[in-house]
Design brief:
The protein has two domains: 38 residues; 155 residues, Alpha-Beta Plaits (2-Layer Sandwich), CATH 3.30.70.640. The chain is 30% helix and 28% strand. It contains five helices and nine strands, in the order H-E-H-E-E-E-E-H-H-E-E-H-E-E. Helix 3 runs antiparallel to helix 5. It is elongated, with a radius of gyration of 23 Å. The N and C termini lie far apart (59 Å).
Amino acid sequence: MPRQLRAYSQHRRNDDETHQNHPVLPHLNTRGDMHMTNVGSKASTRRYARASCRVHFTNAITYNALTTTPTTTGSETSTNARNTNALAKGDVFAAARVAGIMAAKKTPDIVPLCHPSIGIDSVSVDIELVGPETGKEEGFGAVEITATVTCEGRTGVEMEAMTAVMGAALTVYDMCKANDKGMVIDAVRLLEKRGGKSGVWKR
């Protein structure tokens, strides 16, 4: 029995070590095991993150549809024209903005080691239509998506910002895929972060 007690005590000491963050990779503990980063000792500061990505079109149909405005003949609107930013599924940009905001709020459900309930203060998703450029990847146009997330807390919101742009980008793809199944989502990246021990970082 004494041996069992000593073994149990040793196990408890080792278990305490699992709560310490690895000095270089904080999503590992000092034993090299994966864990949720311990932020209990961090100061609560103002956090800010901005991320972006692009959805590239691979034919001219989607860009033309998104830039078509209704034409009127007398008192009637042409039935062959679509409202700006609207396709068969509705207003693409409005749906993508809402999806991006929802995605930011769901980040801990998607990325396993993100902290839940960090108390996001704001999420904004900006979407810009990029015109075709001959000889470049944007030869048929693209959509530029930028998300900004803020909070007051012990951990940053970089993952929330990047998850937001991906949620918005997937929604753009979903709403436009009837016209262009070859669309490419790329250049998902953090542009800027502020707050915390590491301070300001800009790309």
